Amino acid sequence: MAANEHAPSEPFETRPLGDIENARSRHMWTRSSVHATDSLVVAGEWDGTVTAFDRDTLETRWSVDHPEHAVGLETVGDSLVVAGRGESGTIAAYDLESGAKRWSADTAEDVGAASRESIFYLPYVVALEAGGDRNSENAPESGSGPELYAAARRYERDGERREWHSTVYAFEADGTVRWRYETDASPISIDLDETGECLAVGYNRCMGEHDNGLVVLETETGTPEWSWDPGTEGDRRVGDVSFDGDRIAVSSHGDKRGYLLGPGGAELWRVDLATEVEIDGETLYAYPNHAYANDGRVAFVTGNTYAIDSRETDGRHPNEHRIAAFDADGEAIWEHGVGGFVHGLAADGDTIVAPCAQNFRVRDPDTHGLRCFSLADGERTLEPLAGIATAATVRDETVGVIEEPVEYHDEGTTRGEYALRVGSLE
Questions:
Q1: Which of 97, 179, 251, 331 is 20 to 30 A from 262 in CA distance terms?
Q2: 39, 353 in Cβ contact below 8 A?
Q3: At 26, phi and psi to the nearest 5?
Q4: In the record, which residues are listed under signal peptide (predicted)?
């Protein structure tokens, strides 16, 4: 087992990000983003402001106004690509040096316009993935394949009828769309293999004709190569996907297990993560929301506890809010608590960073912070925060995290601020 959790030796530096509505006891939707490059740390804000800071000094290099909520960031060559959530579901590329806009695309042209005025109904670019030259000795040379992949979705409901509309895109460097892959399911995660030849798409909700939680697309044309599904009842399917060589780690919302799949979808192993348990007369479970695979190891992160018969429960699943790692054979290596809800993992090689937000059933501010783990042995560090950590990035030894203010519903006290915090793991 790893040593006790400890804080980095040097405190993180802070750059305020303006105003945002306080989060409440329950975790909120994705409102912010952060991304590190060789020379920058970039923050995307809820009001659409995107600011690039010098990675060493945190001086502002440039700032632009994305037309809607800047909920995702990715670098492609010498461009920063921003994923939007708003009326148009805009994807836009900005010059890394100056912030000048290079191209943009509105995903609402494919997934449709919002059917009502609600954040949950707006077109939403849920994932970005760089293609082309991906800084790997096995990656294709820049220009040999699409430069960027993106997944966008839109939800609508009319009485008992619920529908998703989604599109996966492959973009060229100039913003031209090479291909689209459209379904009536809800994508939640995408990942590209080391060769750049296969793109894995994880679908969280399957309510229509599309009935597979995982689809692997050939990147040159967007043709489906193979698909996989946990085979469970209901519309819940996959929480996250992550390639490691020709294997794919999958967190399953369908049966609350973690899987490692081989080529063609062969199930190499599966592990129970937060499967149903009965406690004090209630059947409880938690969703495995995140997966990260690297160098023959896989880590999974679970989220909040729910009950079969109710969304409200005082019980807690014993494996809620946990990160657990397994070796190539599916044998457990280590596990730790993460304190609360993790919006999304960031990783670089062996290093995993988990931004921890509310544990709404406990409401303990001591759990707020950024937790960093070694995938190999579970060695861990903690950067405590007064507010909640909602987005994170790691590159080499540089770590960035977005803190958002939180006000628990039964306290009336604001904890933390809207800020970018940057530090080092050295």
A1: 179
A2: no
A3: -80, 150
A4: none
The pLDDT of residue 4 is above 70? no
- Indicate whether 293 pLDDT > 80: yes
Cβ distance 71 to 84 under 8 Å? yes
- The count of other CB atoms within 10 Å of the CB of residue 342 is 24
Contacts of 113 (CB under 8 A, 6+ apart): 87, 123, 154
DSSP 387: S
Structure-token pair, residue 365: 């501010």
Whole-number Å distance between alpha carbons of 102 and 175:
8
Which alpha helices (H) appear in 211-327, and where do they start and end? Answer: none
Hey, which bits of 237-379 come out as E strands? 238-244, 247-252, 257-261, 267-272, 277-279, 282-294, 297-307, 322-326, 332-337, 346-348, 351-356, 369-374
Q: How far is CA 40 from CA 35, 59, 94, 135, 387, in A?
A: 8, 10, 14, 17, 24
- Residues 165 and 126: their CA atoms lie apart, in Å, by 13
Q: Residue 154: what residue type?
A: R
Distance of CA 350 to the CA centre of its chain: 17
Which of 3, 160, 43, 9 has the alpha carbon at shortest distance from 420?
A: 43
Which amino acid, one-letter code, is at 186?
S
Tell me: the pLDDT tens digits for 43-98? 999 999 999 999 999 999 999 999 999 999 999 999 999 999 999 999 999 999 99
Q: Residues 346, 294: contact at Cβ < 8 Å?
A: no
The 3-state secondary structure of 13-62, one letter per residue: EEEECCCCCCECCCCCCCCCEEEECCCEEEEECCCCEEEEEECCCCCEEE
Report yes or no on whether pTM surpasses 0.85. Answer: yes
- What is the residue-averaged pLDDT of the chain? 93
